[in-house]
Amino acid sequence: MRDRISARPSILSWLTFALLLIFLPSRGAASQLPANLLISPNASPHHVILVEKSSQRLFIYQFDGDYELVATYNIATGENPGDKKVSGDRKTPEGIYFFTKAVGEQYLTSTYGVRAFPMNYPNLMDIRRGKGGNNIWVHGTNEELEERSTNGCIVLGNGDVAQLDSYIKLWNTPIIVETELKYEDRSTLLHQGQLLLETINGWSQAWSQKDLDRYLSYYASDFRWKNLDLQGWKIRKAWLNQRYRAISVQLRDIRLFRQGEMVLATAEEIYRSDRFASHGFKHLYMVQNSVDWRILAEEWHSAKRPAPPLLQLAAKPPPDRETAQESVRRFVEEWRRAWEQGDLPSYLAYYHPRFRTRGMGLRGWSRYKRQLFSRSSERVIQLGDIETEVQGSAAVVNSKQEYRSETHEDSGLKTLRLRWYRGRWTIFRETWIPLPDQG
CA 345 to CA 163: how far, in whole Å? Predict the structure, then answer.
């Protein structure tokens, strides 16, 4: 009798443990994501493909303000474990890659099934690390899928590989390959993403403002670009800063992907100067020192679109009073629109390099605004009763400002003190005083 009673709790314990195994993972999955998916809140909708060699699974995540798992497939990867090093080692490379083309069944031998997507292996970092081999594809198979059986490619069943067309955009959709995926809380991935965005925006601001020392501070000491080391890069950028009287760099749709100890930041880049302009896509390979993220390598790909217009510079503001005031009003409206749209790089480009307010310089203001922009996705800024006063290369703008977002609203008196800098108006000082009825 005693034995029967003592056995009953044991059975209940095993049942409880089994139920926990069933239900707890789903709860964890709801709050966690693969650590590869750093969250950049303002990125446009896109898909990311993750490959986990240990489980022989391929996962597709969709981003539309946040990441969500939308598909999972069984796969086969290289016969041998580990990262690919040399041609013929029958290993699948680990890294962040993009698809260079989509190949239909009519152009494939039976080995590749009904669909194939070549990857850009070896990429820039693979070449730098001396990794060898090529022709790494994601493709189908006409045979029964067998785990860990390929020469290094990633293979799916024909029915599954045909579905990838709806998720893949060439040179846009990344595929991240890991031995084993690690998971982190969404809040952690968002925080890490915001820190990286602050670094990237600071880098683009320093570039736009031709602040060479600050610009170079964002690079790792072992940075390389083609055949240039960091010192060669400094000489090249110093020459360009002298050649171009003004530079404007706008980054859009910044996305952040991590693999191992490295982050790849991708962005649409619109570059303008008074002598050259381009429209393309920037890739920044970033590593972290003890505290900060630094750029280890970068590359640029043409967007194959018409170049934006060159910057038109004027040595001084318009001499005519009415024309000068109109140029100030136009500047203020463009600044207001960038603020309202939450376009932080464009917004900060309206500020003078030596801007100060509330004890903050431009870098502190950037961090402060980054935090505010992250708290709300929509905002409305209205400026009324605008008064402008222009005196040579300086101007003062006073207005009644009303601000509304889903988290906060206020109204007050805004004063902008402007200076003409490198062919355009910039904000040198900014103050805001709440209206009396707000206390």
Answer: 37
